[in-house]
Amino acid sequence: MIGDGEVNFRIADTFTASLTRLTGDEQKAAKTTAFDLQVDPTSPGLYFHKLDKARDKHFWSVRVSRDIRIIVHRTADSLLLCYVDHHDKAYAWAERRRLETHPTTGAAQLVELRERVADLVDRSAAFEFVTTGSAWLPENAAKPRPFQTLTDAELLGWGVPNEWLADVRAADDDSLLELAPHLPGEAAEALLELATGGTPQRPPAALPGTDPFEHPDALRRFRTMEDAEALARALDAPWDRWTVFLHPAQRQWVEREQSGPARVAGSAGTGKTIVAVHRAAFLARQHLDARVLLTTFSTTLASALQTRLRRLIGNTPCLAERIDVVALDELGERLYRFAFGKPEIASEQWLRAVLAEAGASVRAETAALITTRLGDAFLWSEWNDVVDAWQLGDWESYRDFKRLGRKTRLSEAQRAAAWSVFERVL
């Protein structure tokens, strides 16, 4: 709270993220201004400037230094720190956004303005967008669109802003990955799970009169600063340190009793990692005579998981001793070494050579039209990211696999030709 307690002082994840991109001196100056705003936002020493070009009339800039500006959302009873950057970049950020309460879920969202985002799209990118009718459509509109038949009410139910309904409905599997970063986290998470055949949990609808900043989805991105100490912690630590703490929508997945395997899906930044860390700690506490394995595909992510786990259970080291955090390939090598001795693992150089040889044979045997895209670089990428990564061991598995995010689309005949290469390597 600020001053006499009547104004809610909040901070957004977009502010802390932008703060880390400044130099050390710029960060210190921005933090000082943030503390001044919390103590007394009416102080004559603060320089507020109304952003005339912003679509949200509650956006203001606050002068930090000659060139650094903080973007705040200011109302009679609320002050939200939204973004900080050099003058022109800060203004441009504010002109592309609007703070809204979602009409269906009731969660507070910072929504990007679709026409402003469309103006910024790189026209040389693999997925070039053009304005067609009322939607921001991909140039190649012949690809399947997984959300084409969904109604406005259905899309709104997943947290998609009104601003983006037409664009979501027009998206195909590939352009969805371009679109997702411009959507609120809960909407991107739900759409990605729907596109891969899942059924995500619908965001809870807020009761009338509920504070939109207290919605579980809003707690992912906004925090209320009760005092200067809370603000200091927020500004001194990256947002990911705050996410060591669960919001209510995550806790149910951490503490849920499972009778078998379970999958939690979502886009980047939606909390999957911290749920996994909390789940590992929860299981270790519940089963005192058991060991818990937390594994991932990447050694880098395994290291990050270990760091977050230490933050979470740093005061109970005996708990950490029963939780193993290790990358999946390292785990497999450990188990193989324990059972059979040192493994002999094929090198990337050898695999590339074998794939190239098999590819040359298939291209010589198959119609050029079918093998046009089956160059050595593509075959290695497809093997590394799809076939080997997902352990696809037969034609039916490869034929039916959803290649979400793979920019080169393949017909069934081209998939069959590619598989005829891979089966010679398996």
Number of strands: 12
| Straight-line N-to-C gap | 63 Å
Structural class: alpha+beta
Molecular shape: globular
Alpha plus pi helix count: 20
Low-confidence stretches: 119-134, 136-141
Strand content: 5-15%
Overall description:
- It is a single chain.
- The chain is of the alpha+beta class.
- The chain has 20 helices and twelve strands.
- The chain has helices at 13-19, 24-39, 87-95, 114-120, 152-157, 165-170, 173-179, 185-195, 228-236, 239-242, 248-255, 272-286, 299-313, 317-320, 328-340, 348-365, 368-371, 376-387, 395-400, 412-425; strands spanning 8-12, 48-50, 59-63, 68-74, 78-86, 97-101, 108-112, 129-132, 135-138, 222-224, 292-296, 323-327.
- The strands form four sheets. The protein has a six-stranded mixed β-sheet. A two-stranded antiparallel ribbon has the order 6-7. A two-stranded antiparallel ribbon has the order 8-9.
- Strand 3 (59-63) and strand 4 form a beta hairpin.
- It starts with 7 loop residues before the first strand and ends with a helix.
